[in-house]
Amino acid sequence: MKNATDLFFDAFANRNRFNILMQLRDKELCAGELQQKLKVEQTNLSHDLKCLLNCKFITVRKEGRKRIYRINNETKELVDEVANHVKNYEVYLKKCGILREEKNGRV
Amino acid sequence: MKNATDLFFDAFANRNRFNILMQLRDKELCAGELQQKLKVEQTNLSHDLKCLLNCKFITVRKEGRKRIYRINNETKELVDEVANHVKNYEVYLKKCGILREEKNGRV
DNA sequence: TGAATATATGAAATATTTATCATATATAAA
DNA sequence: TTTATATATGATAAATATTTCATATATTCA
Fold first, then answer.
1. Which CATH class is domain B4-93?
2. CATH number of the domain at A4-94, please?
3. What is the pLDDT of residues A36-91, one digit of tens each?
4. Nucleotides of chain D within 7 Å of a protein C-beta?
């Protein structure tokens, strides 16, 4: 059974969703623009945007047949702080060894 | 292939590891004390502590046959900010619907 | 030295998350 | 009112993370 913290991380700590939030830090964007910038599948992006909307991490407004997404202020601050932490700890994260850094090249 | 942000979230956004960090906000604790407070398996706790150590989220010192763990300051601040955000957004997170809140009761 | 306590390690089993697929809806323009 | 564009939905397949299991190491005390 999940508590609020689990749900928060499910929403926020997801690679694709966090990338969306990172993009939206600077300016609001519509789904199509996000898709181009992030090079993700349309259907995935749509799922992720809905999740971020549900959780109130972003808001949306309609403009013609586009939907323009904007990050909310509190969430932006948290994203900035995480990005900063990651920068400072990058070297340790990369050699953790418990976390799997990447699939190695050999088949 | 994982980047530093992915690794950060793998380490930080894990239920058990984040609970450890939450416990360590107030005071340093040894593994046995964490085990009692969190009611987790010894072997799991040990894996998680190693991960947090590798990532420099916590430090450790020996005392007799115990090992005393302490959270580092920057990490503590981030944990506090996340805890605060979760409190403010709890109501929305719980009705997201994309995030699976819990296994429903029926078998 | 041998037993007891505290903690760590690595591999495999299990569970959960994320991506894909097929398709639906909503708006605009011809 | 049909077609094209932009975006959304839900079910399953595929990938990844977490737990468990069997066992190891390190320190203290008798």
1. mainly alpha
2. 1.10.10.10
3. 999 999 999 999 999 999 999 999 999 999 999 999 999 999 999 999 999 999 99
4. 5-10, 16-23, 26-29
Instruction: Provide the token pair at B11.
Output: 């380490």
pTM over 0.70: yes
| A67: phi then psi, degrees, rounded to nearest 5 | -125, 125
Measured distance CA(A39)–CA(A2) in Å, rounded: 31
Per-domain residue ranges of chain B: 4-93
What is the C-alpha to C-alpha distance for residues B104 and B101, in angstroms, rounded to an integer?
A: 9
Residue entry with tokens 């690679």? A15
Distance (Å) from the alpha carbon of B65 to chain A's nearest alpha carbon: 24
Q: What is the mean pLDDT of chain B?
A: 92
Query: What is the reported pLDDT for A19?
Result: 98
**How far, in Å, are B24, B47, B63, B71 from residue B28 at the CA level?**
6, 18, 12, 7
Q: Which two tokens stand for residue A19?
A: 């990338």
